[in-house]
Structures are given as structure tokens and as C-alpha cells.
Design a protein that fits this description.
mainly alpha, cell membrane, membrane, Probable membrane transporter protein
Length: about 250
């Protein structure tokens, strides 16, 4: 902790605030947090440190939308998500910090592309193929991306939109999906050495920012220009991803 500069702490605090906001008001914004954490901390440690903050934010999302969950959709996704998580665990066990850093950058760029084309593809996904194929595809990709980079938000958002969920059903199903998946990642993260004592100390400092972000999310949701915010998130996430790939 003593090695972090004031600027690094400021960036981590902003990322923690965004983490809370992304769970209660701005789905997909969490990719910016992933980029900031991976840029400030060692790549592998960043995933474990951010994971614990995500779990804190998940609590607020589940409480807010606990009655609006499509459990059938979650059960349909479960087998593929387990496969994706397993692939992510294997990758993290074999890859060094440099490779993880690069892959996080690639994943971030990929989920940005998914975000940009999501609205155009929703109708196509919803009207073609079986639900099983869609669940297998998005579930596996979501499991892998969340294990490796905590960056499954845009991928799973696309699946939930394609399923034509109402707004509350979307938020409730997503809240429980990420709460359950993130909790299941904890043992693997501990076993792989991604959750460390220094990381826990950093989390203790940053938890208040997550709480503030989560509590502010519902209030801010109706007052922010969503389109402008999404564009800013995309721009800064691209910068973060390119930083991870090039430096």
C-alpha cells in the first residue's frame, strides 16, 4: 500500500465509485473500473482486489431488485457459466502477469465492440437459433470474461436484452447472476493467489467509495444523460485497454 502514489489512490477511488454505480444504475460502466485497477495494480492482483469490491456492490443490487429475478434464465445459463469459469481458472493458472494484462486489454476492447453493436444485434439474437445455443454461447463467454477480467457485464447484458426482459427483470436477473458468480469465484481467486493481504487492505480503504456509488446510483439514474455517460465510459475504457496492451 505504501508504494501507491496519491494519483493511484485517486484513480482507485474513482474506479470503486464507478463499481457501485454500475451495479445500481449504469450497467456496463464497470469495464472502466477493470481498466483502472489493471493499470494501477499488478494485473492478477487487480482482478482479486476488484472482485471483493464487486461483491460489496452486488449486495446493494440484490437488495434493490431482489423481487424481479428470472430464475429460469439463470438456471439455463448455469452449465455454460461453469464451463467458462473453469476455462478462466485454467488460463489464470498458466498465464503470467504480462499475459493476463494483455488479455484483460483485449477483453475490454472486445466488450466495447459488443456494447456498440448490442442494440443492432438484439433483434437478431432474439429471433434466431434456440435459447439453449444462446445460453451456451453467452454463458461460456460470460464465465470466462468474468473469471479473467471481471468484465462480463456487456456480454451478459446483451443476452438479457435479447431475452426481451423488462427493465426491472433485467436488473434483477443481472443482480443475482453476478452476485452468485462473483461469490463462486472467491475460492478460485484465493487458490490462485489473486486475493492477497495487501489487496484486502486496499479494499478496506475503498469500500466507502463503493457504498457511496451504490447508494447514489438509484438517485443519479434519472438525472444523468445516459448516452453521454456511455460514450465517456467507452472512450476512457478504450484508453485503458490500449494502455494495458501497449505498456
Amino acid at each position: 500500500m505504501v508504494e501507491l502514489t496519491a494519483l493511484a489512490w485517486a484513480l482507485l477511488a474513482v474506479a470503486a465509485l464507478i463499481t457501485g454505480l454500475s451495479k445500481t444504475a449504469l450497467p456496463g460502466a464497470g469495464t472502466l473500473s477493470v481498466a483502472i485497477f489493471a493499470a494501477v495494480l499488478p494485473a492478477k492482483q487487480s482482478t482479486g482486489t476488484l472482485l471483493l469490491l464487486l461483491i460489496v456492490a452486488d449486495v446493494f443490487a440484490v437488495v434493490a431488485y431482489r423481487r424481479d429475478t428470472n430464475w429460469r434464465a439463470l438456471l439455463r445459463l448455469a452449465p455454460a457459466v461453469v464451463v467458462g469459469l473453469g476455462l478462466g481458472v485454467v488460463f489464470l493458472a498458466l498465464a503470467d502477469d504480462a499475459w493476463v494484462r494483455k488479455v484483460i486489454g483485449v477483453i475490454l476492447l472486445a466488450v466495447i465492440v459488443v456494447t456498440l453493436i448490442r442494440r443492432r444485434m438484439v433483434a437478431t439474437v432474439a429471433g434466431s437459433g434456440s435459447h439453449r445455443i444462446a445460453a451456451a454461447t453467452y454463458g461460456t463467454l460470460g464465465g470466462f470474461t468474468t473469471m479473467v477480467a471481471n468484465a462480463a457485464g456487456p456480454v451478459m447484458s446483451m443476452y438479457f436484452l435479447a431475452a426481451r426482459f423488462s427493465v426491472k427483470e433485467f436488473l434483477g436477473t443481472a443482480a443475482w447472476f453476478f452476485a452468485l458468480v462473483n461469490l463462486s469465484k472467491v475460492p478460485f481467486s484465493v487458490g490462485l493467489g489473486l486475493i492477497t493481504v495487501p489487496g484486502l487492505l486496499i479494499d478496506l480503504v475503498l469500500v466507502p467509495a463503493v457504498v457511496i456509488g451504490a447508494l447514489s446510483g438509484r438517485w443519479l439514474a434519472d438525472r444523468l444523460d445516459q448516452r453521454l455517460f456511455e460514450r465517456l465510459v467507452i472512450v476512457f475504457t478504450v484508453i485503458g485497454a490500449l494502455y494495458l496492451l501497449l505498456f
